[in-house]
Give the backbone structure.
Amino acid sequence: MRRLLLLRHAKAESTSPSGTDRDRPLAVRGHKDATELGAWLARQRSLLPDLALISTAVRARETWDIVQQQISDEVPQGLAADLPELYGAEPTQLLAIIRSIATEDPKCLMIVGHNPGLHELALGLIGGGDAAGRAALAHNLPTMGLVLIDFAIESWDGIAFGGGRLAQFVSPKLLKEV
């Protein structure tokens, strides 16, 4: 079995000092949400990633840095790789990236990236699982939304659209409702 965690970056500022989208930093709310979801993730020991692939956009990297601070007692440092190709990636590109890490064979893989690619990938991969989570996810993958998808595969090169089961969908809003 393999588990995929798709994490959309936290809320970002609308502009950056450089004027480029890639350089937009997290907003105050983004820092707060990333800290809260990271603390939740740290309490869910079975959900912690063996490897995280991070978009090189500033907001994605800042999101991961905050989450990693929260889970650092549970997960060794250095488990992340920055991938420029995650920025703006479409679902088929994201799937190819996931398959390419088959040689590293993490049991639990996290991708920290962006919409619309992550949302479309999640919808495409999920073939069953948590009905309430699927209904909530159908409309949007909000900032700091986390999608947990399980696959009955031996290696990441076996991942396919429709082959996953939604284990859980979590967002800052949903955490407040619990």
Observations:
- The two ends are 28 Å apart (CA to CA).
